[in-house]
Specification:
Elements lengths: L2 E8 L16 H13 L6 E2 L8 E10 L7 H11 L4 E9 L11 E9 L11 E2 L6 H11 L22 E9 L2 E8 L6 H13 L5 H10 L14 E7 L7
Parallel strand pairs: 3-9, 5-6
Antiparallel strand pairs: 1-3, 1-4, 2-3, 5-8, 5-9, 7-8
Helix pairs in contact: 1-2, 3-4, 3-5
């Protein structure tokens, strides 16, 4: 059956996350229902991963199978965008190899977390305000430490159903733009709550409360209770999902 990758972005404020859940409306549910109506057939959508409640995506990838009448991909994008609510937008739909999988074929994911030290009525819904000046040099030094490890149990939500907590972080860094601070991190996979827990722990270093030795102890403990608090989800963005070039048709 022909398979397609759909690229979309969304503001997660009004959703319980990407994945369909019994306690509220998810992005996956809205997209799946909309696509099913337009294609006039029950269509199942599988995403590249989960985003938690309130988390946004500038680029999420999902796949679906369709063997009905042919359609113009650009026309389907247009119809979907007219049908979907204003906080979900589809950018493109492309055919891929039948065995391609939005989740398991992904090479990496990139997230960003946004901080501000200034009260801003136009940014408060998508950035997390802190009441201190973060020590960028110290936090970036600890970002380098992250790439030396691959077991991130200390930053994982407890009692998840994953088989392994091994992840390979290839990039992690803080950048400053005026009053705005952005943490960007790329890995082959992420655990539930991992980015928010890492960010909260790095902010302990940014306050001067955590040094490199203490950070290493946290990682090596493999215990969520020793790491810092998770930062709120409303300032977290899924920025990109990367795939092999030979996957696309």
């Amino acid at each position: 059956m022909p398979r397609f990758f759909i690229t979309l972005s969304y503001n997660g404020k009004n959703y319980v996350g990407w994945q369909i859940q019994p306690n509220g409306i998810s992005v996956q549910q809205v997209l799946q229902e909309s696509l099913s109506v337009i294609l006039r057939s029950v269509t199942v959508i599988t995403g590249a991963g989960r985003t938690d409640a309130g988390v946004h995506a500038r680029k999420m990838i999902a796949h679906f199978d369709w063997e009905g009448d042919s359609f113009g991909k650009a026309d389907l994008v247009h119809k979907l965008n007219n049908f979907l609510p204003k906080d979900i937008a589809v950018q493109e739909i492309r055919p891929v190899l039948p065995e391609a999988h939005a989740r398991f074929s992904a090479l990496s994911r990139t997230y960003s977390y946004h901080l501000t030290t200034r009260k801003d009525p136009f940014q408060h819904e998508m950035s997390y305000r802190v009441h201190f000046l973060p020590d960028m040099e110290r936090m970036n030094r600890l970002c380098g430490v992250l790439k030396e490890y691959d077991d991130f149990t200390s930053f994982s939500k407890l009692h998840t159903d994953v088989k392994t907590n091994i992840c390979r972080i290839t990039d992690a860094r803080w950048e400053r733009m005026g009053d705005h601070y952005i943490f960007t991190i790329t890995a082959d996979r992420f655990l539930r709550n991992m980015v928010r827990a890492i960010t909260g722990t790095l902010l302990e270093a940014g306050r001067g409360r955590l040094d490199e030795r203490g950070f290493r102890r946290i990682i090596e403990a493999r215990d969520r209770n020793v790491a810092g608090d998770s930062v709120p989800g409303h300032a977290l963005f899924l920025e990109d999902v990367a795939y092999p070039d030979d996957l696309w048709l």
